[in-house]
Amino acid sequence: MSTKYIFVTGGVTSSLGKGILIASLAKLLQARGYSVTIQKLDPYINVDPGTLNPYEHGECYVTDDGAETDLDLGHYERFLNKPTSQANNVTTGRIYQSVINKERRGDYLGKTVQIIPHITDEIKRNIKLLGRKGKYDFVLTEIGGTVGDMESLPYIEAVRQLKWELGKSAMVIHLTLVPFLNASGELKTKPTQHSVKLLLENGVQPDILVLRTEHDLGEGIRKKVALFCNVEEKSVVQSIDVPTIYEVPLKMKDEELDVTVLNKFGMIPGKEPNLEAWTSFLKKHKNPKQTINICLVGKYVELADAYKSITESFVHAGAVNECKVNLDYVHSEDITNLNVSNLLGKYDGILVAPGFGHRGIKGKIEAARYARENNVPFLGICLGMQIAVIEFARNVLRFEGADSTEMNEVTKYPVIDLMEEQKGITNMGGTMRLGAFACKVKKGTKLYDAYKKETISERHRHRYEFNDKYLKEFEENGMIAVGQNPETNLVEAVEIANHKWFVGVQYHPEYRSTVLKPSPLFVGFVKACLSK
Ligand code: GLN
User: Fold this and answer.
1) Atom of ligand 1 lying closest to residue 356 CA
2) CB–CB of 238/216 below 8 Å?
3) Bridge partners, 441 (sequence order)
4) Which of 246, 309, 245, 296 is CA-nearest to residue 511?
5) How far apart are CA 459 and CA 433, in angstroms?
6) Where is 526: in which H helix or E strand?
7) 28-43 pLDDT tens trace
């Protein structure tokens, strides 16, 4: 079959969950045996979110091929259990960069370079790139932002053109909100009508409308929306609030969203989607036998999205262990030597989060010390691992003032130091050690217990590394390098041998955790916390 293109746009407000909706639809199509991929188009001018503060757009997600991407790609991978790549996330910055590079090369042969057709052509090229060679039956593309935003206009225009070019092989799903007015006790469809009108002004007639709502819509509302927005009643789909995002695929199945999509493409829906593994995960997730409390020590704790992949990894690892993981965020700047036992004493496990810069470092070091001295299960991720190393150097090896050169360039003991290949880099965007690298795991360690493999592959995003000049002293005193890069010997994981479970990893295990393949390291950490 020829590749079919599905576009998802959003209206009325942001944060309606376009990412989850598109991932859920893709999941249903995948569960029917189709090959699918999901792409996100982001209307901002940054080339990628790598240079964005997490307060802006939440976590920066990293793919195998080292692309720094929008956190929605994390949802796509967690739902589909398939890796994404640079091609799955395109920003306005990237589009313009590529057009401007072409202009400088003279590719436009003296023509005036304009939004239409040059920018829209570049957008269309990036969408169709994924459908090339018939690799996928369905390419689903999420248009970031909300219809009506000035910066989304070129994307909507590209969708309009593609709908025209591709005819029956393209469709648009528009996600909107039906608010409930408490005072009058009514659900309101006007914002949806206006939002569809805005799309129509731009020449795009949506094929399916998905309505986010807190209350059941009932037939009346569906009929009304269908009438006002030129869609069939069957194509008005309700998306009611659910306790977990992982239930959305099942809700969309109940609404027969996948069937409606297939019918609109003129395809015959075969047997029901196979969601056995998915529902068995959900069953475990919703019926935990015990509860554990873990704290995440970080500095972006006001914003849950800043640590999205970590929180989701705990959902996956909790289900495997049939327990509920209560994850509390503790601000590292609130932790001091005096209050650490008060703040962290009640937890079954401590996680020190990734991060950059020196803000909140002291509190993170206290958290690592507390976990080490009190035999509390500990997982340090990236900066969290580096913190564990600094703490061990200062308090066990007695290296006074030991530090990472990220925090103190002139420390006497640079136990964490800039990687050789990072020296001389001045550009900040896309220049870290990024993407998947192999790691050799030492047998007889907690790390090996978790992965049960001698060679693993995990994703990275950092500039600094463990300074192996000090490795011997660390190992003689009980902190062991348990994971190393097979080619460069870079230390990728450390643990404390005589501790219950104390592991620090330079890589980000959270990026690889999916519903069907939870991260072995998170599973191991949760297990250790359970037996505290
Ligand atoms: N700032 C540290 C580095 O660049 C850690 C990065 C991270 O936690 N992702 O090495």
Assistant:
1) 1
2) yes
3) 483
4) 309
5) 9
6) helix 520-530
7) 999 999 999 999 999 9
The answer on pLDDT for 424 being more than 90 is: no
Amino acid type, 461: R
What is the pLDDT averaged over residues 133-146? 94
Instruction: Give Cα separations from 231 to 44, 179, 222, 223, 235 (angstroms).
Output: 31, 20, 10, 10, 6
| Strands laid side by side in the 403-404 sheet | 403-404, 414-418, 464-466
Other beta carbons within 10 angstroms of residue 420's beta carbon come to 10
The whole model's pTM is what?
Answer: 0.95
Strands 349-352 and 323-331 turn out to be: unpaired
Atom 5 in ligand 1: residue holding the nearest Cα? 383
Long-range contacts of 143-146 (CB under 8 A, 24+ apart): 143/7, 143/8, 143/9, 143/10, 143/41, 143/43, 144/18, 144/40, 144/41, 144/42, 144/43, 144/44, 144/70, 145/10, 145/14, 145/42, 145/43, 146/10, 146/11, 146/12, 146/13, 146/14
Active-site residue among 75, 118, 285, 508? 508
Residue 510 is a catalytic residue: yes
Alpha carbon of 125 to those of 32, 98, 103, 394: distances in Å? Answer: 28, 11, 16, 54
Tokens 């188009």 belong to which residue? Answer: 41
Residue 309: alpha-carbon gap to chain centroid: 5
CA distance 326 to 315: 9
Instruction: Tell whether ligand 1 has an atom less than 6 A from the beta carbon of residue 382.
Output: yes
Mean pLDDT, the chain, rounded, equals 96
Distance 464 CA to ligand 1 centre (A): 6
CA dihedral for 522, 343, 530, 79, sign (positive or negative): negative
Q: In what order do the strands lie in the sheet with 290-298?
A: 323-331, 290-298, 349-352, 378-381, 502-505, 491-496, 479-484, 433-441, 455-462
Is 355 touching ligand 1 by the criterion CB < 6 Å? yes
Decide if 272 is catalytic: no
- Determine the Cα–Cα distance for residues 27 and 138; give it in Å rounded to an integer: 11
Catalytic residue of the set 122, 312, 458, 510: 510
* Cβ-based neighbour number of residue 107 at 10 Å: 12
Q: Is the CB of 356 under 6 A from ligand 1?
A: yes
Contact 122, 111 (CB under 8 A): no
Count of Cβ atoms closer than 10 Å to residue 253 Cβ: 19
